[in-house]
C-alpha cells in the first residue's frame, strides 16, 4: 500500500501473519535430502515469533558425508568432558522477535552412527555458558540403526537468543555419526511462545442495533508488527461499570447480562460478533481490547485510547396507527402472465417494528358497504420491511419466485372496477387503504392490467396519490425501481425521461451513466432511495426530498506505481461514515492534508481517527486503490451552501495550500459567485495519471466527487461553495463557454499523458503575482515526470500565468527533465486568440523559432542540464510604426536581444541600427528577415531607439533593453 510523508510517496509492504500460542512445537530441523557434509543447515519450521535457525558444527568436528543427516567425524572419546574440551558439538540458536519470549520444555533428537561412532550424548545451553547438562547424559546403543532421545527440562521466559549445543563422544575418532536419517523431523523443540503485547488497538468498533434484542458489532483488527492473538469485548448497561482486564488473568466469557456486564473473547480475524439476549429500548456500551497469549501469560493492550461504541436496542413491536403501514403496490391478475396471482404489498414506513396483532387485511368487491373478506395478520413487520397478501399462494409463489407471499384471502379478486383493500386495526381503525372502500363517496376505477405504485404519502383513497404503469409485473417486497434515461431533456418532471413513471416518495431511483441528459429539479420532487452512477449527475438536490438513502458511486482506477492512481475525492453527503464506507476496504490509501505541518495524515493511523469520523462536506481526501473499484458515498445529500472556514497559511510548511472538495452530486462552476475570503481565484485538480495538476480559472467546472487545491493569500481564509452553482458538465474540468486568450501548453509523455502549463491574457492582471488571476505551481509527484512552469521574479513558480497583453510579451519557460528526451509540445487554445496575435516558441540554444499558429504541435529536445528559459514563448501583434498604411514590423526587446517580427511584411534584407538617447549610433547589423528574428545586442540596460531599413521602407521604435 502506498504511503505519503511530506508530499513524498513510498511503497510499504505489510506482512500479515497468524500467531501461535500455547505449548507445542516451536522449532524443528529436517535433514532429509542433505549429503551430510554441508557446512550448515536451516530449520524447516519455526514459530512466526522466532527467527529462522541454523545448525552448525563445533571447531573440533570434521564434516563427513552421509545422506539424509547432518554428519561429522573426529568426535572426542570416552566422556562429555572430552567433548566439551575438544569443541565436539553441533549447535543451533533460538532467537525470539523483539518483545517476545519463549519457554522450552523438551528437545527431541534422532540420530544414527557408524559401528565406531558416538556412544554418548548430552545437551547444554548458553544460559550457563554450557557448564551443565540440561538433562541426563544418554548412552547411544552400539548399533547402526536410528535412535532417538528426548531431553526434558524447564527453561522459561527467554527474551533473548539462546544457543543449544548437542555434545557427543565416540568409540573412535574415525567413527561417523550425526543427527538425522530417520522419518520425520530430526530435531524438535517443544515449548511455548509468549508474544509481545499487540502493537495496535483495533482501528474502529461499530455497534448497530438489530431489532429489539440484538446488537451487531464490527471492528477492524488493525494488525501492527505484533498482531493480536484475540480480542476481549466488554459491555455494560448505563447503570453498570466496564470490566477492566488485568495482565496475567484471563477472564471467562460472561454472556449473561443479569449483572448488566458482559465479556467475551473473540479470535483474531473474526472482526464481527452479535450480542444477543438484550433488553428492548436499552443503551448498551462496548469496548474492545486487543490481547496476546492466554492463561497466565495473557497480555492486554491497555495504553492509549480504548476503542468504544454504543447502540440502543429497538423498540418492541407496537400497534400501528394511521400512516404507519401503507399499501405501496397493488397488482391485478391481468398484469401477470398467469391468473389469480395478483397481490398487494404492505410496507412499514416507520423506524420501529410494528405488531400485526389485531390487524386485518380487508377486501371490498366493487365497493360494497362491508368487506367481502378479512384476513387476520400476525407476527410483526420490521422497519423498512414488507408483507404480501395474495389471493392464491401457489400461483403467486410460482410467478414471483424466490419471493413468497405472507398471507392470502381466497376472495381477493383483483380484477378492476371499484375493488379495493385496506389495512385495519381493531382499536385504531383504518391504517391505510387503496380506493375509497365502503363509503362510496369518491370511488375511482382502476384497470386490472395495470400495476399501481404509491407515489405520495397522502391518503390511499385519493387517486392522485397513485401512478399506474403497464411495464413489468410488479415488484413484491421491494419498492419500484425507476431509472432515469434522459430521453427528452434534463427536466425531472418529464415522464419520457423515465423508464416507467416519474418517481414519488416510494420509488427507488437510479440515475444511469453515459447519458446525454441528466436530471435537474427546478421544482420540488421526491423519491425513496436514489443511486447516482459513476459519471452521472444531479442538479437541484435542494429541491429533492429523499425519504430513504442517497448513494453516489465513483469509479476509481487501480494504481500501478507509487506516483500514479492518486485521486482527490470529495463526499456529496452530510453524514457518511468513513470507517463503514466501502472506500476503506481492500488495499487502499486515504489521507487528509494538514497545512500546519505540510503532512498527509493517514486514515489508518489510530492517532488520526478524529479526522476520519464522517466525511467532512467541502473537504477533499487523497485516495488510491490497488484494484479498479466502484466505491460509493451513502447518506443524505448536502443540499445547502457549504462553508469551509479557518483556512490557515503557515510559512515554511503548507504555505496556505488546502484540499477542499465538491460537496454536491454534480459539477460546480468554480469561483464565479462563490465567497472567497483571502483565497486565490485559481483551483488545481490532481490528474490520476501521475502527471501532476490541472489549474482551473474562474468559470471552469469542478466535477462531482472531486477534491481540489486552493491557496490562502494571507491571514485566515474561508470559502463558501454555493449550491446554486451546481451544473451538469459532461467533460471533466470543462469551461462553460468558448475561452478567450486562454492557452494551455501540453508536454506529452505518451498519447494520453501530458503535463500542463496555462497562460491567459487578462486586462486587469499585472506582471506581479495576482491572487485573482495567477496560480502557484504544484510539481508532479513522479520524479520522472517533466516539470513545466513559468516564473515571476527568481523564485515564484507559476502553473497559471496571467498578464495584461499590450502588444508583445515574452514568457521564458521552465522545463525540467531527469533524462534527455524529445517530447511533443502542443499549444492548446491557439484559436482563442485574435488573428493578429503571433505566438512563437523560441529554442534559444539552437536559435530556432516555431510559429505555433502554423506549426502545432512541435517536437522539442530536452536535457537535464537545460537552464530556465531555454524555451521562450513570444506573444506579439504586428502594429504599424510609421504613418503609412503599409504593414509594419513588430519590434521588441527581451533578455538583451532585439526581436523583429515581420508579420505580413515581405521577407527580405534589413539594416538594423541602435541609437542611444543622445542620438549616437552604438550598434548596427545587416540581417535577413524570415519569420521572427533574434538579434543579440549585449548592451547595458537603458532606453534606445531602433531603426530598421528594408530598402523600401523605414521603421523605428523606442525600446528599453535589459
In short:
The chain is mostly beta strands and 962 residues long. It has 2 helices and 76 strands.
Low-confidence stretches: 1-21, 732-736, 879-886
Q: Main beta sheet, described?
A: 11 strands, mixed
Q: pLDDT average, as an integer? A: 89
Helix content: under 10%
Report the portion of residues in β strands. Answer: 35-45%
Question: What is the strand tally?
Answer: 76
Radius of gyration: 41 Å
Number of helices: 2
Estimate the global geometry from the Cα principal axes. Answer: flat
Could you characterize what this model shows?
With 962 residues, the chain is an all-beta fold. The chain contains two helices and 76 strands. The strands form 18 sheets. Strands 59, 60, 61, 62, 63, 64, 65, 66, 67, 68 and 69 form an eleven-stranded mixed sheet that branches. The radius of gyration is 41 Å and the shape is flat. Mean pLDDT is 89; it is low at 1-21, 732-736 and 879-886.
Amino acid at each position: 500500500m502506498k504511503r505519503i510523508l511530506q508530499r513524498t510517496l513510498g511503497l510499504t509492504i505489510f506482512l500479515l501473519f497468524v500467531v501461535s500460542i500455547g505449548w507445542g512445537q516451536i522449532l524443528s530441523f529436517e535433514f532429509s535430502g542433505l549429503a551430510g557434509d554441508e557446512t550448515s543447515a536451516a530449520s524447516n519450521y519455526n514459530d512466526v515469533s522466532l527467527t529462522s535457525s541454523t545448525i552448525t558444527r563445533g571447531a573440533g568436528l570434521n564434516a563427513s558425508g552421509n545422506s539424509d543427516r547432518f554428519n561429522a567425524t573426529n568426535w572426542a572419546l570416552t566422556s562429555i568432558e572430552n567433548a566439551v574440551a575438544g569443541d565436539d558439538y553441533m549447535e543451533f540458536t533460538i532467537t525470539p522477535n523483539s518483545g517476545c519470549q519463549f519457554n522450552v520444555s523438551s528437545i527431541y533428537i534422532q540420530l544414527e552412527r557408524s559401528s565406531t561412532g558416538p556412544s554418548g550424548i548430552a545437551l547444554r545451553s548458553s544460559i550457563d555458558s554450557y557448564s551443565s547438562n540440561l538433562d541426563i547424559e544418554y548412552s547411544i546403543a552400539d548399533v547402526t540403526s536410528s535412535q532417538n532421545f528426548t531431553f526434558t527440562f524447564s527453561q522459561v521466559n527467554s527474551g533473548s537468543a539462546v544457543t543449544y549445543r548437542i555434545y557427543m563422544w565416540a568409540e573412535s575418532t574415525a567413527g561417523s555419526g550425526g543427527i538425522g536419517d530417520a522419518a520425520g523431523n530430526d530435531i524438535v523443540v517443544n515449548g511455548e511462545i509468549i508474544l509481545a503485547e499487540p502493537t495496535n488497538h483495533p482501528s474502529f468498533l461499530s455497534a448497530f442495533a438489530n431489532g429489539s434484542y440484538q446488537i451487531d458489532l464490527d471492528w477492524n483488527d488493525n494488525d501492527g508488527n505484533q498482531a493480536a492473538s484475540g480480542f476481549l469485548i466488554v459491555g455494560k448497561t448505563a447503570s453498570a461499570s466496564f470490566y477492566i482486564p488485568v495482565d496475567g488473568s484471563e477472564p471467562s466469557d460472561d454472556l449473561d447480562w443479569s449483572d448488566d456486564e458482559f465479556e467475551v473473547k473473540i479470535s483474531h480475524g473474526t472482526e464481527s460478533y452479535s450480542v444477543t439476549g438484550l433488553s428492548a429500548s436499552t443503551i448498551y456500551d462496548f469496548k474492545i481490547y486487543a490481547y496476546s497469549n492466554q492463561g497466565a501469560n495473557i497480555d492486554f493492550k491497555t495504553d492509549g485510547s480504548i476503542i468504544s461504541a454504543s447502540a440502543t436496542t429497538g423498540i418492541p413491536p407496537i400497534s400501528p396507527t394511521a400512516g404507519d403501514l401503507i399499501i405501496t403496490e397493488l397488482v391485478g391478475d391481468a398484469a401477470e402472465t398467469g391468473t389469480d396471482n395478483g397481490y398487494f404489498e404492505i410496507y412499514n414506513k416507520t423506524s420501529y417494528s410494528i405488531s400485526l396483532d389485531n390487524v386485518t387485511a380487508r377486501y371490498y368487491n366493487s365497493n360494497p358497504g362491508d368487506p367481502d373478506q378479512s384476513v387476520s395478520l400476525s407476527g410483526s413487520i420490521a422497519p423498512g420491511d414488507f408483507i404480501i397478501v395474495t389471493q392464491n399462494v401457489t400461483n403467486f409463489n410460482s410467478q414471483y419466485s424466490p419471493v413468497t407471499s405472507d398471507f392470502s384471502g381466497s376472495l381477493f379478486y383483483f380484477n378492476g372496477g371499484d375493488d379495493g383493500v385496506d389495512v385495519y386495526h381493531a382499536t385504531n381503525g383504518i391504517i391505510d387503504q387503496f380506493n375509497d372502500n365502503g363509503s362510496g363517496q369518491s370511488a375511482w376505477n382502476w384497470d386490472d392490467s395495470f400495476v399501481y405504485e404509491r407515489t405520495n404519502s397522502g391518503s390511499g383513497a385519493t387517486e392522485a396519490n397513485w401512478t399506474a404503469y403497464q411495464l413489468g409485473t410488479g415488484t413484491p417486497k421491494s419498492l419500484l425501481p425507476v431509472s432515469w434515461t434522459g430521453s427528452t431533456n434534463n427536466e425531472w418532471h418529464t415522464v419520457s425521461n423515465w423508464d416507467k413513471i416519474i418517481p414519488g416518495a416510494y420509488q427507488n431511483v437510479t440515475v444511469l451513466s453515459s447519458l446525454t441528459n441528466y436530471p435537474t429539479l427546478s421544482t420540488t420532487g421526491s423519491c425513496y432511495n436514489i443511486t447516482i452512477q459513476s459519471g452521472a449527475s444531479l442538479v437541484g438536490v435542494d429541491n429533492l426530498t429523499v425519504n430513504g438513502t442517497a448513494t453516489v458511486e465513483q469509479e476509481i482506477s487501480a494504481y500501478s506505481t507509487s506516483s500514479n492512481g492518486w485521486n482527490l475525492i470529495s463526499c456529496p453527503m452530510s453524514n457518511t461514515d468513513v470507517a463503514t464506507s466501502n472506500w476503506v476496504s481492500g488495499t487502499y490509501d486515504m489521507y487528509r492534508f494538514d497545512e500546519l505541518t505540510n503532512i498527509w495524515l493517514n486514515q489508518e493511523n489510530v492517532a488520526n481517527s478524529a479526522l476520519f469520523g464522517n466525511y467532512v462536506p467541502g473537504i477533499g481526501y487523497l485516495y488510491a486503490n490497488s484494484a479498479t473499484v466502484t466505491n460509493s458515498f451513502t447518506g443524505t445529500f448536502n443540499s445547502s451552501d457549504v462553508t469551509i472556514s479557518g483556512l490557515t497559511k503557515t510559512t515554511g510548511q503548507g504555505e496556505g495550500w488546502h484540499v477542499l472538495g465538491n460537496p454536491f452530486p454534480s459539477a460546480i462552476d468554480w469561483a464565479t459567485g462563490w465567497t472567497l475570503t483571502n483565497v486565490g481565484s485559481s483551483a488545481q485538480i490532481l490528474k490520476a495519471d501521475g502527471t501532476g495538476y490541472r489549474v482551473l480559472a474562474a468559470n471552469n467546472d469542478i466535477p462531482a466527487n472531486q477534491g481540489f487545491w486552493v491557496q490562502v493569500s494571507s491571514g485566515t481564509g474561508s470559502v463558501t461553495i454555493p449550491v446554486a452553482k451546481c451544473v451538469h458538465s459532461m467533460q471533466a474540468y470543462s469551461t462553460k463557454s468558448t475561452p478567450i486568450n486562454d492557452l494551455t501548453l501540453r508536454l506529452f509523455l505518451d498519447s494520453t499523458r501530458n503535463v500542463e502549463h496555462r497562460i491567459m491574457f487578462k486586462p486587469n492582471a499585472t506582471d506581479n503575482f495576482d491572487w485573482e488571476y495567477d496560480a502557484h505551481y504544484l510539481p508532479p509527484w513522479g520524479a520522472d515526470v517533466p516539470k513545466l512552469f513559468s516564473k515571476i521574479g527568481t523564485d515564484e513558480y507559476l502553473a497559471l500565468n496571467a498578464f495584461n497583453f499590450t502588444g508583445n510579451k515574452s514568457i521564458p519557460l521552465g522545463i525540467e527533465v531527469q533524462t534527455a528526451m524529445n517530447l511533443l509540445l502542443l499549444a492548446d487554445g491557439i484559436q482563442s486568440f485574435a488573428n493578429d496575435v503571433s505566438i512563437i516558441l523560441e529554442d534559444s540554444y539552437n536559435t530556432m523559432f516555431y510559429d505555433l499558429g502554423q506549426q502545432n504541435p512541435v517536437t522539442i529536445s530536452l536535457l537535464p542540464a537545460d537552464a530556465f528559459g531555454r524555451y521562450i514563448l513570444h506573444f506579439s501583434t504586428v502594429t504599424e510604426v510609421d504613418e503609412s498604411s503599409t504593414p509594419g514590423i513588430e519590434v521588441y526587446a527581451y533578455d538583451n536581444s532585439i526581436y523583429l517580427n515581420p508579420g505580413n511584411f515581405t521577407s527580405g534584407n534589413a539594416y538594423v541600427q541602435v541609437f542611444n538617447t543622445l542620438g549616437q549610433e552604438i550598434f548596427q547589423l545587416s540581417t535577413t528577415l524570415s519569420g521572427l528574428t533574434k538579434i543579440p545586442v549585449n548592451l547595458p540596460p537603458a532606453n534606445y531607439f531602433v531603426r530598421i531599413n528594408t530598402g523600401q521602407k523605414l521603421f523605428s521604435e523606442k525600446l528599453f533593453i535589459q
